[in-house]
Structures are given as structure tokens and as C-alpha cells.
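seq:
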Amino acid sequence: MAITGDDVTLDEIIPISYDFSVFICHYKGADTQVRVTFFKEELELKLPFGSHTRLFLSEVNRAWSGKALCYDKSYYNIKLKSEVRDDLIRNSQPILSNKSQMLGMPQFGLRDNLIKCELLKNEDAYTYIENYSFFLGTYNVNGQNPKESLSPWLASTTTPPDFYLVAFQELDLSKEAFLFNDTPKEPEWMLAVYKGLHPDAKYAFVKLVRLVGIMLLFYVKVEHAAHISEVEVESVGTGVMGRLGNKGAVAIRFQFHNSDICVVNSHLAAHTEEFERRNQDFKDICRRMQFSQDDLTLPPLTIMKHNVVLWLGDLNYRISDLEVDHVKDLIAKKDFETLYNHDQLKRQMDEEVVFVGFTEGEIDFQPTYKYDTGSDQWDTRLENTITHFYHTHHQKRFSTTSFCAPVGLLPFQFQDMKFMQHQAKTVTVYNDGQVPCQFEFIPKLDEPSYCKPWLTANPAKGFLAQGASVDIDLEVFVNRTTAPELNSGQQQLEDILVLHLDRGKDYFIFVTGNYLPSCFGSSLSTLCLLKEPIQDMPLETIRELSMKSTSQGSNPETDKPQEIPKEIWMMVDHLYRNAKKQEELFQQPGLRSEFEEIRDCLDTGSLDSLPGSNHSVSEALLLFLDALPEPVIPFSFYPQCLECCSDSSQCRQIISMLPQCHKNVFNYLTAFLQELLKFSAHNRLDVNILAPIFAGLLLRSPTKQDSTEKRKVKEFFQHFLVQTPSDRDIHYKSPE
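struct:
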């Protein structure tokens, strides 16, 4: 596929004039076969499936039909350097899908708005319901290759299903797959699925989406292909730092006839005691999984804003509070009801903590986890629980609610905002006029967006029938991008939103708040100058120290910095004393609630020791490094590091030239990691695990890295995980 401008070449320009014509010849899979003619010249083209192709064809058609300036538009024949896949499903002509899509269409006049309202009122009169069958299958393959036919599984139904959604987890457990999201096992399992589909029907391949080892394949009966459109994919990593893809979810959303459908394949946190982490993963996936719409001015679609939501995967909820022998006895008796009553997922759903509104299929099969690899024998290791593997062929249906719009004007105050802590307030907007209207938050003069980057309004635009109302959520979230300027006092939590009514007046919404400064998102040089916890310091003092840290005007006597920030020392010291033998360190995520406690402890100095599990402390350390506005190895050194990545002595020479506090932190962290590697027999850590995790945090690129740069960064950092006599020892004294 074409990734950058270097992947395509401009071959020819054809003007869209009266001598121009374009015909959609036929569809092969999802690729639209198009014939373009100009005088005697003729081109056969394949346009890949997607919203960009639809938009392009509609623009060509608009120009050709004379509704636009014909000679101002051109058609570009682009030759791709790589082959375009021809096994995808075709796109149908755009159709008005449902209420939410109708209400989201932009810029209608008054007459159009009235027509839309009448259509919505009489929707039941011109719609009808049909049933279709979905095969939803999920398989944790544990990094294995396909060894036998999947037909007994995929073709197990008497009647061929209309849709196949086949989910995999742990497709590839190699370090390369984890680091570079690349695996040869993807085509192997894809071929195995294709060969295993029901033999009594023909299927078209629609889409594939994969995040490391989490993969979802979508096939549909050929006769339904014409009615599939709006196919989009997204992924969310919920591993360490909420981003790494060893855990998380992938999803495919599409429109079938007039229904919006979203299918999610997730692999949630493991281990019996981590059900709270699984709950958190589910909520993070629901919040962060967002699909862009054809109209880019419309807000993204979340999972729950679809007519039908199908969720499958390795959810990892366990059977708890039962001894393993008792579980096996209940399985032998086929007493699945008793087992189900001890299922963590059922308990969490009953308490309405997760999957609220979802319906799980009847459990009439024994637990599928855990067997000895390649056998039908239960796990012969000593285990005190057996996991219930979530699996269902049933649909989970959600109703969608129409958007709506504007009323009064209020100031909104967000109190005591903290780093990575979400707050939201709701404004209810009511249309008490006599006609429907549209609303939209619009940018202020000379500003690129309607709001500051720490603020969002959802929905940001929509349609409002007369007498209707809508709740607009104003959400504030300070992350690693926005925290540095708030910590240093360069920015404040202040913004004005302009709510514009089509053919009406504008309303102004004032959003203000106070942000509690944090060590997360503060610079190393500033933190080394802080003698007290950051929230015990006056804001003006923090601002002054931030300015001193970036200038040469500090007094070496009165402004003598600490060797390393005390916050780094506290986290590393905690792990050094408590986690040297901890398995899955820096790989298993912690709990969000524990991170918040650790953050507050570091920012306020309220406790002498850090709260939370080892995994939560290790993730906090990674988040701290990730949030540094200037990484441990400053951006200016990045090109040199890549150039000499294969030469150990030159790499060490570069480190010796770092600013003093940056050099101290680098040496301190590498000494700590070397200590961890001494206990690899217990913690199972090795250089290939630690190097990529820390390399990408300590040596960050000022721009997006490609795979070659990632490998060079890893190679650079690996030199420092091999201890030499000159390496700094970890036993720094505690900062004063």
C-alpha cells in the first residue's frame, strides 16, 4: 500500500471536461473497477475500498455533471509501487443509513431540515427488519502456527452463516511482533480461515485488522457484498502505559443496509486477581476506540454509538472462589450453572460494572482454559482456578439516540484538575423555537480548532428538531502533551467555546479551572531544582524555577540542583527493594486507581513510601519518562545517537556530553536495569525485553519513528545494558 508520497508517482493528468467520461464497470471484491475515457484515450483503474474512493468518485461526478467548475478539477492517475489487493468487498453507493447518520449530514437549508424531521417521525413506515446470521469465533492460538483444518470449527453450522467475524489472540508471541507489529503468522492464519469457511456458500473478504497478536477477520456472503459500506477499523492498546499492544482490542465497524454494526475483539489483562484491571481495560477500550466519519467535521463514532455491537475475544475473566478439584468435579457432572455463578464476568455484569446492556449467550460448554498445549488434558500444573473463556454467537444490540441542540449560557468551572484524570460536565441544550436547526462549535478567529487541546465537546455538532434537547459533555483531560505548559505556568485552564446556530446567533461558553501541577510532564532540570514536592511549592516559584532551568542565569550556590529528581529515586528505589524478582515487570499494566495514588504521593509528599503494586509503580515510572517534555537523551542528540548506534564507545561518548541532570538520570536508570538483569532467573527479564521498552522512552524522536529508526534506537540502548567497570552504581543516596 502507498504509505508516503514516495510510494506514488504522477503518471498523467486528465481534465474533467465535456470529452471526459467515467464508468463503473464492475466490482472485484471491494476494489471498484473504473473505466475512464478522454477522447480516444482509455484507462482501466482499480480504486481501493474506502471512504476516500467514495469521496473521490462523488467529486468527479459532481464536476462532470456541471454542478462544479469543470475545468478547475483534474483526475490524477496514480500508479502504486506495490500491488493493490483485489480480494476485498466492494463499496455500495452512499445511502442514508439511520437516524444518527441523517442527523449528522452537514449544511441543510430550512426546507431540508423540515423534511428530515418528518422522515424521522415516520421512519417505521418505510423501514423493515430482516434477520441475518453471524458466526463469531475466537481463538487464543498461543503463538502457534495452524496445524490442522479449521473447518470443524468454522463450518460447524448446518446453514452457512451470512457473516464471519473470526478473532485471534496471541497470534505471535515473538519480541519482533511486540515491538514492530509485524508477523509472518498473519497470512498463515488468514489462509487457514479462508480454507475453513463453510463450503456451501461463497464468501468475500471484507477487512482485516491486527494489533500485535490481536487479529480480527471479516468475511461476508458474496450476495450481501453490495450492501456493505462505511467499513473502518481501529485498535487500542491497553498494555503498559495504556498503549503497548500486548493487550487491548481491535474493532471493525461497518454499515449493512441501514444498520451500523461494530465488532470488537479484545484481549484483556490476565491473572485471577486482576479482574479490576480487566474492568479498567474494558472501559478504556470503550472510551478510546473512535472511528472517524466521512464528514471529518463530525465527531468520531464510539463503540456504543452503533445499532449492533458484537464483542468477543479472550476476556480473561476467571472462575474464582472454587478449588480446582471441585471445578473439575462440576465439569464432569456438566453442572455449568454452578460454575457460571462463580464466573468473574457474570459477577461484574450483575454489578453493572462492565458490559452494561450486553447479553451473553447461554453457557452450555465446559471451560476451554486451561489445557496442556496440544492435548485435551487439563493443565497438569498446580493451579487453583480454571478460566472461563468468553465465547458467544449471539448479538448484543444497542439502540442509538438521536443527537440534538442549544439553550442557555453558563460558565463551567473544573476544580483541582490532575494529570491523566478525567473530568466532565454536561450542558443541556433545548430548542424551543418553531423550526429545527443545526448547531456546531466553531473555531475562534485565527485558531485552528474550536477548543484547547485539553478540552473536548461531545457532540461537537448536530441537528436539533423543534422541542428536542441534547446533552453536550464538556470533557477535560490533561495528558503528556498538554501537561508541560500547564505545569510551568505558560498555559492555564481557560477557554471560550463558540456554539454557533445555523442562521441563528452564537452562544459563548466559558470554561475555566485550576490545574494542580505535577511531576508528570515537568522537565528533569526543573524537578532537580525543586526542594519540596511540587504541589507544596507556590505556582510563582515553580514558574521561576522552570525559567531558570532553561536559562544560564542560575546561581550555582543558591540554586544547586539535586543529582536526580527525588520522584525518580522514589520509584526506582521502591522497585529495587521490592521488585527485583517480580515476573512480568514493565510488561504487566498496573491499576489506574493505584497510579493516581502514586501520582498524588509523588506530587504532595504525603507518604514516605509509595502505595500500589509493583506493576503499578513500574508503569508509573514509564509514564513519568514518557511525559518528560525533553527526554532523558535530549532531542538535539537524537541524530547523533542513530548515526553511531553500532559503536559502543561512540554511544558512551554521546552520553558523557549530556546535560548533567540528564546524564545522571540516564546512568541511574541503566544501573537499575542492569541490577534487574542479574535476577533474570526469577523475573524472566532479558535485554531483548528491557531494551525496546526503555529505549523508546529515553531516546525519543522529535517526529514519528519508522521501523528502521526503532531498531537503531534499540541497538543504541542495548550497549548500556551490558555492565562495564565504568558504569555508575545504582546506590545513589536519597535526595535531600
